Amino acid sequence: MIDYEQLEKLGTDAGFSHIAPLKCSTIELLPEVRQMCEANTCGMYGKRWSCPPGCGTLEDCRAKIQQYKNGILVQTVGQLEDAMDGETMMETEALHKKNFFAMEKLLRETYPDMLAIGAGCCTRCETCTYPDEPCRFPKKAFSSMEAYGMLVTQICKANDMTYYYGPCTIAYTSCFLLE
User: Fold this and answer.
1) Which of 49, 74, 93, 164 could form a disulfide with 135 if both were Cys (CB 3.0 to 4.6 A apart)?
2) Model pTM?
3) 142, 116 in Cβ contact below 8 A?
4) Whole-angstrom Cα distance, residue 39 to residue 46?
């Protein structure tokens, strides 16, 4: 049984702005999200094991998710000086990944078989081996929620977590599927 109060404390201690329980039954994988990945606006499509098509089909991702019933959503929210404040966006993303790695390490002690799904592509290795060699750290690699086909705003709404905090804010969201 998941102790959400304990997980919320762990998440707060790890530095996240917001933590919420996640019902895995609320996770929908949408082809249109994958189509956004294929547009390759981030420049990572087909370049990493953690990004499509390397992370598998939607059916592959669905099969992984269906092994879990519960998890948690975590967010790091940053305050921007203005809508073009790229520096704070990058700082907030770096902070979110730092928090994500810290939380993952803590959670693996209790949930060794959890599925960690992040924000942005995997950055465990400076250079990914995709597609020439297998992933160096398959148990430590992570895909983004979008790579799995999740519409983050929808997942947040379905689990009573705010996604939009107003103008001049940015929110990075990840999840850990625990049991």
Assistant:
1) 49
2) 0.95
3) yes
4) 11
Burial class (CB in 10 A: 0-12, 13-18, 19+), 92: buried
Mean pLDDT in the chain? 95
Q: Which of these, 27, 66, 34, lies nearest to 52 by C-alpha position?
A: 34
Q: What number is the average pLDDT over the span 153-169?
A: 97
Whole-number Å distance between alpha carbons of 141 and 114: 12
Residue 38 neighbours by CB distance under 10 Å = 11
**pLDDT band at residue 145, thresholds of 50, 70 and 90?**
very high
Distance CA 53, CA 106 (A): 30
With beta carbons less than 8 A apart as the criterion, state whether 175 and 22 touch.
yes
